[in-house]
């Protein structure tokens, strides 16, 4: 048994950690046994557990869990990068969210993490020409999580969406790696144009609660958007913008705003 755990740790340390925490959760709260076993301990891999969790949350009378699970399994088998991105998202949530003290929590409880993983499968469907099914995933994720991410959007890895209520990300939006955003963020358009019409968010960006970024504009790497801001013009890299309409109010204050999660207008710690 110890040798098996050692091999698993070498191959997939994130999954090993999740399983260990699942056992600890069972010891602390036996009444969680059904949930923990069905969602984690019953599965041989992170991919299988993730497919089960997504399909369970998105299942409805219109589309049963079994079909959705087969879709997710096929997506992870065809494109292993989907599950690797999910691992990066999981680590991001654990590192950046002070309310998260275990890796198993986002998989079981955090709708921001779950919604992003549902989007990733929907995006796989979209890029494989199965657009109606992708839209079904989008619809159910919006209904289940209150997060509306168009399957045509392009989103990097290491994404953390805290609280995740009322998030909207449009069809031609691009979100880089290691981006953090809070609830009620909109990456939207400015009218009825049908071409490239949504924001392009660089790596390492922090987007505060209630911020609206509108139009085909660039938000530079490692910048910060203050809570409640309305961004209508390009944001240079490593700057902080605030206001309606948003204006540059200073430097970002640190190398990785999305990591420090410092939303105050003064400089980030350690700058």
From TrEMBL:
Highest taxon of the source?
Bacteria
The enzyme class is transferase
Q: Membrane: present as a keyword of the record?
A: no
Pathway given in the UniProt record? Amino-acid biosynthesis; L-cysteine biosynthesis; L-cysteine from L-serine: step 1/2
Q: What sections of the protein cross the membrane?
A: none
Task: Domain (Serine acetyltransferase N-terminal): give its ranges.
Answer: 14-118
Q: Which GO terms describe its biological process?
A: cysteine biosynthetic process from serine
Instruction: List the GO cellular component terms.
Output: cytoplasm
What keywords tag this UniProt record?
Acyltransferase, Amino-acid biosynthesis, Repeat, Transferase
Is Transferase given among the entry's keywords?
yes
Q: Which reaction does it catalyse?
A: L-serine + acetyl-CoA = O-acetyl-L-serine + CoA
Instruction: Give the Enzyme Commission number.
Output: 2.3.1.30
Q: Which InterPro entries match?
A: Hexapep (IPR001451), Hexapep_transf_CS (IPR018357), LbH_SAT (IPR045304), Ser_AcTrfase_N (IPR010493), Ser_AcTrfase_N_sf (IPR042122), Ser_O-AcTrfase (IPR005881), Serine_acetyltransferase (IPR053376), Trimer_LpxA-like_sf (IPR011004)
One MF term in GO for this entry?
serine O-acetyltransferase activity
> One Pfam family this chain carries?
SATase_N
Sequence similarity: Belongs to the transferase hexapeptide repeat family.
Q: What PANTHER family would the database entry show?
A: SERINE ACETYLTRANSFERASE
What name has this protein been given in UniProt? Serine acetyltransferase
Q: Which organism is it from?
A: Roseovarius faecimaris
Source organism lineage? Answer: Bacteria, Pseudomonadati, Pseudomonadota, Alphaproteobacteria, Rhodobacterales
